[in-house]
């Protein structure tokens, strides 16, 4: 089962970088969201593929037509938070407020209930599992925030289950669709999202996809925008991670969705036997 998802944010929504951290900085950058979204939806429609879109509340407020267009085309909408902040840098009340704002604006624009969530930067970690209680209380039923391996920002290696599972925390249960990996010489290799997808040769992506029983993707509009400006002040490593492979990513995506069948989260939920998946108790 290959699940296709996109995190809908602007090209300048880079985490852990002072010059792109808040809305005060964002106002100085040009918008490229419409061009990039049109590219993605055109490819999906061309190949008859479904997908789920985790949308920032900030994008929805500023460009409600982007959300309406997705819904009118039959795509699912989930929350990516409102202001693209790392969860572990927020207090619980700040996280709740950000989540509620995003749900409210997305539901008002889309006319549909928001049931899915993905944290910016997969930033639900072992030290902020309180987020699951808030997600449940705010009506989220399926979370896609777990990256069960080390990661620059985020990462939850102790979760231990790179497959559909149930999170249990303080009497709350959520369905979890975490990031997936390919197993290479006994090591886990991410390949199905962001910079990992842009960096890996397509021959390997194709092989790893064909060998995966469960694959979760996370792609961004900026991943296919080779013409985006380079943000100044980034370290050499961060510049590499943020801009590697942009020129070939669109063609790579088109080959991927031509070679394999993908589903959205709604379809995946129906295909999974939730009574038999692992229950991860975090209490």
Structural class by sheet pairing and helices? alpha/beta
Largest sheet: 5 strands, mixed
Extended strand count:
12
Instruction: Note the overall shape.
Output: globular
Please tell me the CATH architecture by its name. Answer: Alpha-Beta Barrel
Q: In percent, how much strand structure appears in the residues?
A: 5-15%
List the strand order in the largest sheet.
5-6-8-7-12
Give the C-alpha Rg.
Answer: 18 Å
Q: How many domain regions?
A: 1
Q: Can you tell me the CATH class?
A: Alpha Beta
Instruction: Please name the CATH topology.
Output: TIM Barrel
Please count the helical segments.
11
Low-pLDDT runs of 5+ residues are: none
Average of per-residue pLDDT values: 95
Q: What's the CATH H-level homologous superfamily?
A: Glycoside hydrolase/deacetylase
Q: What sequence of helices (H) and strands (E) makes up the elements?
A: EEHHEHHEHEHEEEEEHHEHHHE
Helix content: 25-40%
| Distance separating the two termini | 30 Å
């Amino acid at each position: 089962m290959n699940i296709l998802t996109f995190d809908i944010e602007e090209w300048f929504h880079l985490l852990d970088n002072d010059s792109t951290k808040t809305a005060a900085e964002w106002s100085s950058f040009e918008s490229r969201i419409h061009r990039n979204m049109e590219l993605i939806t055109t490819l999906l429609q061309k190949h008859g593929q479904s997908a789920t879109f985790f949308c920032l509340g900030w994008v929805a407020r500023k460009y409600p037509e982007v959300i309406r267009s997705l819904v009118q085309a039959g795509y699912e909408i989930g929350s990516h938070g409102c202001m693209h902040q790392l969860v572990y840098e927020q207090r619980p009340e700040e996280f709740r407020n950000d989540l509620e704002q995003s749900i409210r604006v997305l539901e008002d624009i889309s006319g549909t209930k928001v049931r899915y969530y993905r944290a910016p930067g997969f930033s639900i970690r072992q030290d902020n599992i309180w987020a699951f209680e808030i997600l449940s209380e705010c009506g989220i039923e399926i979370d896609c925030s777990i990256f069960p391996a080390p990661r620059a920002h985020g990462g939850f290696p102790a979760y231990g289950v790179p497959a559909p599972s149930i999170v249990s925390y303080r009497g709350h249960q959520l369905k979890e669709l975490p990031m997936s990996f390919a197993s290479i010489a006994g090591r886990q290799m991410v390949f199905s999202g962001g910079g990992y997808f842009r960096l890996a040769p397509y021959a390997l992506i194709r092989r790893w996809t064909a060998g995966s029983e469960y694959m979760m993707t996370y792609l961004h509009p900026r991943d296919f925008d080779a013409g985006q400006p380079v943000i100044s002040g980034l370290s050499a490593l961060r510049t590499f991670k943020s801009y590697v492979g942009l020129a070939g990513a669109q063609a790579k995506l088109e080959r991927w969705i031509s070679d394999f069948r993908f589903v959205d989260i709604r379809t995946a939920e129906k295909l999974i036997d939730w009574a038999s998946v692992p229950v991860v108790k975090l209490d």
